[in-house]
Every structure is written in C-alpha cells, then in structure tokens.
Amino acid sequence: QVQLVESGGGLVQPGGSLKLSCAASEAFSTWAMTWARQAPGKGLDWVSTINNDGSSKTYADSVKGRFTISRDNVKNTLYLQMDNLRPEDTALYFCSNSQTRGQGTQVTVSS
C-alpha cells in the first residue's frame, strides 16, 4: 500500500505563506489527490482536490483564491501553496488518495 508523508508545516504570522508537500512512496499518477485539515477539537474538513494529471482542481470556499494545489507526477509529490494565511487556517493538514492518508503536518497561524 502506498505511503504518504506530509511536510512543510510550521508557525507563520497572519498574512504569511507556507507550501506543504506530500511525498508518495510509489508512482501516484493514476490517483486523484486531496488535501484536508482538522482544527483542534473539530472534524476533518476537505480543502482541495486535484485529478490525476493536474488538469482539474477544486477548492473549499474558505480557501479559494488563497490556496493552490498542484502535483509533480515525476517526483510523486503533491503540493499545497497557502498564501494570505489566517488564524482560522490553523490545523493539522493531511494528504490522501482513495486508499490511504498521511500522518499530517501541523500549520499554526498566529501573531
């Protein structure tokens, strides 16, 4: 089973940027990939999905215009560029395909 490992989280001030990465242990060009997040004490929220070749991207209204999902099928890596971050973006961010999910990377937005 493929393994997914997220990285790139951290502490950032409001208005700042972070770029998350999700490395897959094997070729993932056949899968659609998704980013989701879970804030403290809350459920898992969908953030964005990209299709297998990157030609179609969808976003939650809460992040539309601020976050950009992308993928590199040569490097087997999924990305999430997050700009103009807000305190309400603070959460544990996960990448997933239809079969598995990574362990997550923490994003904290605070002054």
Question: Secondary structure elements and their pairing?
Answer:
Blueprint: E1 4-7, E2 10-12, E3 18-24, E4 33-38, E5 44-50, E6 57-59, E7 67-72, E8 77-82, E9 91-96, E10 105-109
Parallel strand pairs: 2-10
Antiparallel strand pairs: 1-3, 3-8, 4-5, 4-9, 5-6, 7-8, 9-10
Structure in a nutshell:
The protein is mainly β and 111 residues long. Helix content is 0%, strand content 48%.
Structure report:
By secondary structure, the chain is mostly beta strands. A hairpin with an 8-residue loop joins strand 9 (91-96) and strand 10. It has strands at 4-7, 10-12, 18-24, 33-38, 44-50, 57-59, 67-72, 77-82, 91-96, 105-109. The strands form 2 sheets. A 6-stranded mixed beta sheet has the order 2-10-9-4-5-6, with no helix packed on it. It has a 4-stranded antiparallel beta sheet with strand order 1-3-8-7, with no helix packed on it. The model has no long low-confidence stretch (mean pLDDT 96). The chain is 0% helix and 48% strand. It contains no helices and 10 strands.
Could you list some keywords that capture this structure?
mainly beta; 4-stranded antiparallel sheet; single chain; 0% helix
Secondary structure tally: strands? 10
Going across the major beta sheet, what is the strand order?
A: 2-10-9-4-5-6
What characterizes the major β-sheet?
A: 6 strands, mixed
Structural class: mainly beta
Oligomer: single chain
Tell me the radius of gyration: 13 Å
* Overall residue-averaged pLDDT value: 96
Number of helices, where a helix is a run of at least 4 consecutive DSSP H or I residues: 0
Report helical residue fraction: under 10%
Residue share in β-strands: over 45%
Order of helices and strands: EEEEEEEEEE
Poorly predicted regions: none
- The geometry reads as globular
End-to-end gap: 40 Å
